[in-house]
Write a structure and sequence with these properties.
The protein has 365 residues and is of the alpha+beta class. Helices cover 47% and strands 10% of the residues. The strands form three sheets. Strands 1, 2, 3, 4, 5 and 6 form a six-stranded antiparallel sheet that branches. The chain has a two-stranded antiparallel ribbon with strand order 7-10. Bound molecules: 2-acetamido-2-deoxy-1-O-phosphono-alpha-D-glucopyranose and magnesium ion.
């Protein structure tokens, strides 16, 4: 962790207004480090300073240019609609004093954005907020559907299930941390589903499933809400890139419909909540139903299973490699996460017929 003074010096490299106070650690992302910088001068904004994890996002120029393209596009759309609350609905990044969209201190890359005032984020939400989230993600995808710039993949193969399985198999083969013997049963459970779970890649190769601009990290805690439940904006834009719509639909449900924690030590707490599913799906189909293809809507239950599956694969991969990717709080953390996601997957699988019936009902109006 960098020292407080160092962080304060880094903040000074950006064109900050007012009187910034000392940075405080902020949020609980598993990848980047974030700090809140409050402003002592009334009427001036607070800021979020982030250290970009450049071991994971290796092309920082591509990363920031994607993000600026997306926020610029959304901002122009909101302006055209005459929206009166634009500063709370799209992130604003602040340039470094040298005019660049980030500051490089010789070791780390940093970026600064305005903290959205009067916003809240949650780890879990109720059905009412879920429905708003469904509406908002449909609109987010719709707004980005006519972006005139091709976005790059900030992490190549990020939500490519075939690629994630190849990574897992390589980690099983290498067994770098000597942990394989304790997780063979989980590897088997994952392998037995591998073919089914790679459906999206096959559909795409056959020309039946398009890639669209997606957020690709629609965890509940990446959404900012108004105090009365309205969605303000989606944050954490590092992974915005072309993907299947399954990404945003599936990753939201993976986090919102889980009755336990992502890293619950007691898998008995973990279940897939159908009320959250229904509320989110009804909102999503209401705003996105007009542009989704039948292949996309038919496979929404597959998307609900794909993300707990993919996350199980990714946590297990990191566990086998000796915890080099995700931040961990204790030695077995990635294994605990793996088991909790596997439990969620099993619960989703049991509820698939109910999900299908509900989606058919929504589509029939
Ligand atoms: C990471 O940055 P954060 O914590 O929102 C990860 C997601 C995972 C998630 C699991 C770049 O997201 O893909 O789904 O953890 N982001 C990256 O909680 O790998
Ligand atoms: Mg996050």
């Amino acid at each position: 962790m960098p020292q407080r003074n160092d962080i304060q010096n880094i903040a000074r490299r950006f064109l900050i207004e007012g009187m910034p106070l000392a940075p405080e650690p902020f949020g609980n992302g598993l990848i980047n480090d974030s700090y809140l910088i409050r402003n002592a001068e009334p009427g001036r904004p607070d800021y979020i300073l982030q250290r970009i994890n450049h071991h994971i996002f290796t092309d920082v120029d591509l990363l920031q240019s994607n993000i600026l393209a997306v926020t610029g596009h959304i901002r122009r759309k909101l302006e055209a609609l005459g929206d009166r609350d634009i500063e709370r609905k799209v992130l604003r990044f602040i340039e470094a004093a040298d005019g660049r969209p980030y500051h490089f201190d010789g070791e780390n890359y940093w970026r600064l954005m305005v903290h959205i005032p009067r916003s809240v984020s949650y780890e879990t939400i109720d059905p009412r907020f879920s429905r708003y989230a469904g509406l908002a993600f449909g609109e987010f995808q719709l707004m980005l559907s006519d972006i005139d710039r091709e976005l790059g993949e900030t992490i190549p193969g990020f939500h490519d299930m075939e690629y994630r399985l190849r990574q897992l198999r390589e980690a099983v083969e290498a067994d770098r941390a000597g942990r394989l013997s304790g997780v063979k049963d989980i590897v088997e459970q994952l392998e037995s589903r591998a073919w089914d779970m790679c459906l999206a890649e096959r559909l795409h190769r056959e020309g039946l499933l398009p890639k669209r601009v997606c957020h690709c990290d629609t965890k509940v805690n990446n959404i900012l809400f108004d105090r009365d439940g309205g969605i303000l904006c989606v944050i954490d834009l590092d992974t915005v890139m072309p993907s299947y719509i399954f990404s945003d639909y599936g990753d939201f449900l993976r986090t919102a419909a889980n009755t336990g924690d992502e890293d619950d030590r007691d898998p008995a707490n973990v279940d897939f909540d159908m009320e959250i599913f229904k509320a989110f799906t009804s909102g999503y189909l209401e705003s996105a139903g007009g542009f989704l293809t039948p292949v996309e809507t038919e496979n929404l239950p597959y998307a609900a299973a794909l993300f707990p599956y993919m996350q199980t694969v990714r946590f297990l991969w990191d566990y086998l490699n000796g915890d080099t990717y995700y931040k961990t709080g204790y030695p077995e953390h990635n294994l605990v996460r793996t088991r909790a996601q596997l439990k969620l997957l099993q619960s989703v699988e049991r509820k698939t017929p109910q999900m299908k019936a509900y989606i058919e009902k929504c589509l029939a109006g």
